[in-house]
Design brief:
alpha+beta, 4 strands, four-stranded antiparallel beta sheet, about 25% strand
């Protein structure tokens, strides 16, 4: 069973949305920066257009919570969720893991580009060296 949750909150100076996806007992998250305060229909159109392009973080084990049967308790929990900062610690951990993964990918990519540039410069130097000695 897959469960999705979107939390939109204000992180000065932008409005930010955090998708939390719980699938087979594993939680992964994705962060989206909206900019100005999004209207409900803007959030819905964003989800419809761009949901399959979102890059979720690597999955972390999630603890499934059981719903309490007391309606007053559920109402208090709902009010806490609406008034709170928004993101849970698990989703923050998932986003941090995603940032680390993207960071290592960027490092690897920049390293290969740097090595290719060094190889190109070395080949150019060798070619110039050979052309200097051809005139004798």
């Amino acid at each position: 069973m897959e469960e999705l949750k979107l939390t939109v909150y204000f992180a000065d100076p932008f409005w930010v949305g955090v998708f939390e996806r719980t699938q087979n007992g594993a939680l992964s998250a994705c962060k989206i920066t909206f900019g100005a305060e999004p209207k409900d229909y803007e959030v819905q159109s964003f989800i419809l257009r761009h949901f399959y392009k979102l890059r979720f973080s690597p999955a972390l084990p999630a603890v499934q919570r059981t719903q309490s049967s007391n309606p007053k308790r559920r109402q208090r929990q709902a009010q806490r969720q609406l008034s709170g900062a928004g993101t849970g610690t698990k989703s923050m951990q998932a986003l941090a893991a995603q940032r680390e993964q993207l960071k290592t990918e960027r490092k690897q990519q920049s390293r290969t580009q740097q090595e290719a540039e060094q190889q190109r410069r070395f080949a150019l130097k060798q070619q110039k060296k050979l052309e200097k000695h051809k005139g004798h």
